[in-house]
Write a structure and sequence with these properties.
This protein is α/β, with parallel strands linked by helices. It is built from nine helices and 20 strands.
Length: 389
């Protein structure tokens, strides 16, 4: 029986498991999923947690191990520290070496707080539930200015170059924090500043979405500093190059991202920690290894929808190779919704980032309702929804 292993159990890993379960008979393949957590934290919802609703953090833990058990898969809770492609083996922290015939790597990218002097998780963030929870509690207590910072994205620039690691959640937090403060009549005492290395808000979106975001930031008096080169972060201030100081009583950060240490240690990366693949998400050197989601060099920026699409492409390509059938390549595009507060959201469908000319944009209540419906459906169906992208 063909031995398939999936590393990672978030958007990309879960979607890979879904398509393997859907396409293959149980007698064809044996599936093992490895992740360090038995539950998935649904990170897109953490912006609400940080923006005044800390008690909601525990509502977004999805028991993925239970879903895999129901499907008849093997789940190993452990930490992966190295992949050895030459002998098709995975080294785990506490379990014996795990062999594979085909491997799907969906472990994501690593936040690198240390790439900015002084920056650390205790400054606040939305990348993990405990960071978002603490940021939400601080919002109700602090009185001074708020800084929402975005770190840089370190990559080779192929196939595209982005300055910012992940500015869309930072903008969501800014809008939602603004709405929460106004609801509690505290907005005037809490100025909000967004720092981004990019030249525009929503760098990965198209110009129509960027114009709407700029207009919303202006109307709601959220200061945006673009092209921010962050020198140092201290307890109550951020220093930009060369000597500009931004004061902050509270901060919320999206840290820099510099690929994956696992990919580096395994010799699978492109020199920047991202795994290079062909259009079917297969590794350029090792065709029995597929990279899905954030860790894939073609997936930038970090968007859950791209991870789910790549999982579909990768698993279908694997199925096609096993059955001598053709498959469809990965065609990148952005599909993303930003909650902007007051029941509204910004929907973007665009391939402009990847050299196309398509951009469909809608701002209003339907966009926010659509994202809320998707989030709740994802939680309800434990990541395996009746209709998958």
């Amino acid at each position: 029986m063909h031995n398939v292993v999936i590393l990672g159990s978030r958007f990309g890993g879960s979607a890979s498991a879904y398509w393997l379960h859907k396409l293959f008979d149980a007698q064809e393949i044996q599936i093992t999923i490895v992740d360090q957590w038995a539950v998935m934290t649904y990170r897109p919802a953490l912006v609400h947690v940080a923006a005044g609703h800390p008690i909601q953090a525990d509502n977004w833990h999805i028991p993925m191990a239970r879903r895999y058990s129901q499907a008849g898969f093997r789940f190993i809770r452990d930490t992966v520290y190295q992949i050895e492609p030459h002998n098709q083996t995975i080294r785990l922290a506490t379990h014996p070496p795990l062999p594979y015939d085909t491997l799907f790597v969906a472990t994501g990218a690593d936040p690198r707080w240390d790439l900015i002097e002084g920056l650390a998780p205790h400054h606040g963030g939305v990348c993990e539930d405990y960071l978002a929870r603490e940021s939400g509690y601080l919002l109700s207590r602090a009185q001074g200015p708020i800084v929402i910072g975005v770190g840089s994205l370190y990559s080779s620039g192929k196939p595209l170059r982005l300055q910012t690691s992940l500015d869309l959640p930072a903008l969501e937090v800014a809008f939602l924090v603004d709405a929460w403060l106004r609801k509690h009549h505290r907005r005037e005492e809490r100025p909000i500043t967004v720092l981004t290395p990019a030249s525009v808000p929503g760098e990965s979106l198209g110009p129509k979405s960027q114009a709407i975001l700029t207009r919303q930031l202006d109307q709601r008096q959220i200061r945006l500093i673009t092209g921010a080169c962050i020198n140092k972060v201290e307890a109550s201030k951020v220093t930009l190059f060369p000597h500009r100081v931004i004061k902050a009583e509270q901060m919320i950060w999206i840290p820099p991202y510099y690929g994956s240490e696992l990919a580096r240690l395994s010799g699978l990366d492109d020199g920047w920690g991202w795994i290079p693949t062909d259009q079917y998400c297969r590794h350029e050197k090792w065709p029995n290894i597929y990279a899905v989601g954030d860790i894939n060099a073609l997936a930038l920026p970090k968007v859950g929808h791209i991870a789910m699409i790549q999982a579909k492409v990768a698993v279908h390509a694997f199925w096609a190779s096993m059955h001598n059938k053709p498959s469809q390549p990965f065609t990148p595009y952005i599909l993303h919704v930003i909650w902007t507060g007051y029941g509204c959201g910004l929907f973007t469908l665009s391939d402009i980032l990847y050299g196309g000319h398509r951009e469909w944009v809608h701002w209003g209540m339907p966009a926010a309702l659509a994202k809320t419906f998707f989030s709740r459906s994802y939680r309800h169906f434990l990541g395996w929804m009746p209709i998958m992208p």
